[in-house]
Amino acid sequence: MQKISNYINGQLVEPIGQSYLDNYNPATGNVYSLIPDSDERDVELAYKAAAAAYPAWSLTSAEVKFKIFMKIAELIEQNLEQLAAAESIDNGKPISLARVMDIPRAASNFQFYAQAITQFSSESHQMEQSFLNYTLRQPIGVVGCISPWNLPLYLFTWKIAPALVAGNCVVAKPSEVTPMTAFLLSSICIEAGLPAGVLNIVHGNGPKTGMSIVSHPHIHAISFTGGTRTGAEIARVAAPMFKKLSLELGGKNPNIIFADCDFDEMIATTVRSSFANQGQICLCGSRIFVERNIYDKFKTAFVDKVAKMKVGNPLDESTKMGAIVSQLHFEKVLSYIELAKEEGGKILCGGEAVQMEGDLKNGWYISPTVIEGLSYDCRTNQEEIFGPVVTIMPFDTEEEVLKMANSVMYGLSSSLWTLDLKRAHRMASLIQAGIVWINCWLVRDLRTPFGGIKNSGVGREGGFEALRFFTEPKNVCLKL
Ligand code: NDP
To answer: What is the DSSP letter of 279?
Structure first.
């Protein structure tokens, strides 16, 4: 069985404790590879390698970093098929999605930050004729990056690319649930000539490996994407150590549909924004609010399309709905469907596990589920489910829908469907979310600030925001 290795000091190495965890293929429910069960000794080794590489890397020119990053991106593109298949097997996502979204975006993350660093600048402030202040933006040192399982390589590279290009050295941990593509990236980094120790990837579980990074006394910044509860635990440990923290957390995103929208475009996009990646994208819209005078029309058209979505083998080219990432998560999503029923919800379609046949019979599959009849403030509509489950609710006025949309503790993203320009801008300014899409969904310009408010996180990724996070500003004041 394939054994994944840690990537420390430019080498693929075994965990010091020689202990491994099982890695499951969610499509079959079978163990198909082994993951290092790393502990604080491996993190310490990774830290030492990063600290030793830091003096030279922090002084490496933008041009040199540009060349290495573009080479990494080129190698990701050359290995697109292998990486897409690996992502699909590890995560259960349709290979067609990994091929057009996850892997190309991982390459773009390196290309984007290779270029961004050449455009990054800092401020100067002159005081009359006598003094000049200028700001140095210096790397932090060794930083930690921890990423989740839903978009494994996409989100892993979204963190490490800005961290590295800003001149830091990195100790990173992908989710133990989906470690494969980060492992494959290790070899790509070696081939691209990334100097030893600049990036170190330590595999293992969150409470042990992840927490060893978070609590390490000399890792001075943590960039984390994952659940809100984990984010709180990380903040509890890291805040008293005065670490810089970027926390990208959970969501319960509203999708608000007015009667004056482009109906066909809205329906097609809403199916995607509800169920892409089995609903396991932090930006999926899980609460759908529909203006009452088109509620029945929406319900008929939406349920008709969703009911036709076939759950299938993630490796089949035609599959649009694959497997749920793990047994634990599968059980969590099903428990929320039960909760919705207890709370009085009516299942309009889906609502159950799908029993597949042959090799897939032990895999974890759930049919896309649409529920109506729930109050906006019940648990089903307040807690993050993070699966192929959406609720639909009618509304009458802007005030009413804003109250319902903003009632959750989260504030990550939102979608608005209307052709009334004034209303679109009015609503966009009042929705409590870090991102508002108007008449579209998941359109990403990598220059824009990305992140949430309330319990969806602290800080922003994207563009120069990430370069600001991964650098310390230092004011220098000179008497002229
Ligand atoms: P988790 O919070 O469970 O895990 C995220 C990462 O943190 C994993 O690498 C995990 O390791 C690690 N981890 C877990 N516990 C600790 C700990 N105590 N200390 C340090 N690290 C730890 O999230 P999921 O992987 O389940 O991802 C789903 C969540 O991520 C959802 O809530 C989703 O909304 C959110 N998310 C947010 C995004 C955003 O941009 N705001 C984007 C994508 C997802 P391991 O898995 O190995 O245990």
So the answer is: G
